[in-house]
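=== RUN LOG ===
request id: a7f3
mode: sequence -> structure
chains: 1
length: 200
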Amino acid sequence: MQLGLLYSGGKDSSLAALVLDRFYDVTLVTAHFDVTEDWRFAREAADAVGFDFETVVMESDVAQDAIERMLEDGYPRNGIQTVHQHALETIAQVPAFDAIADGTRRDDRVPTVSRAQAQSLEDRYDVDYIAPLSGFGRHAVDRLVDAELDVTVGPSEEISKADYESELRALIAEEYGESAVADVFPDHTQTVVKGLSNSG
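=== RESULT ===
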């Protein structure tokens, strides 16, 4: 069965791919707004872990709605959630995929996919939605990643990764200035996968 896994090039989505590989023909899919070429970093990560890779472009009005929400809220959570749901819907519409997945974990604050949202995706697009890390907490994921993947960790503004945040940051900076980016996004670290671990 063909599965499209929403992919950023980070540790969670890469680990999800390794978990699902036994059961599905996995294609890693980066959904983006065609604002930057950061999707290339996800392609490099996909090549490094040995999976097929595709991109899909999302509608720009989704990015604008997310940005307006983040600026109004003063934090990114609800905007990121909106984009994640739209990305899953976009991938669900790719005719080749029997199933879609993401790398959300049990203790993620954002993005999350509720049971009702998962059922809605499945019913509307006739695909299976799978969250293979939903039973894993952060520490369990970190231990598995340490055993299986070679990753680079750093501040989000310094790590080149193909997630929604980098494009949303770029759009906010362009329209509202760098200070608005700092007002919305807290300091945090990101990971990007460089390949499979030699010990894995």
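=== NOTES ===
The helical segments are 11-20, 39-49, 60-73, 77-92, 115-125, 138-148, 164-176, 178-184.
The longest helix spans residues 77-92.
=== END ===
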